[in-house]
Here is the input.
Amino acid sequence: MICLIKEYSYTVYFSGPNSNHFLYMTDGYCIGRVLRRGARSDWARKSGDMTNNANFELAERLRAAVGSFVRRTRECAGTPSDARSETLGLLDRKGPLSAAMVAKARAVTHQSARKVLSDMEDGGLVTGEPSHRDGRERLYRLSEDGMVELRRSRSARTRWIAIQLEDILDKDDRETLAAAIVLLERIASAGSD
Here is the structure.
């Protein structure tokens, strides 16, 4: 049974009469799954009580702005996101990884991750070697060529952003942005210990 109620200005869909999960919706778009009050994690408990609409609306604006900014930067810098670029970045941040670990991190099938890694290994962007824990499993890491490609795409995006900062923002705007970056870094590192 699906229960439909209005809460504040958002439509909330419960996935059953005794469900611990529901979705917040606004303007027909799913904001995400949220656990109800009484759930296990502190994050879930706080997010289940969406009494502060201002914070929720700010969070949605931030999510949309960051997503739009990332897409526009990749498009204008000529570095579109694809399976290969996502895997290069993942291996740089977390490697060495097995195909199963890459699949889980990228939310794709094991077969898809294995194919991408195999193609990248054939292209010289990654190297694979048997795992010390399990010889049947291969661990992949960036090769020198893979690191060069990753640096090149990151540098292209950074150059495009730097030009936009110079052309669009004045000194006060750049100082405000620098302060906002500190806040974003604080949010991103919360709970990482």
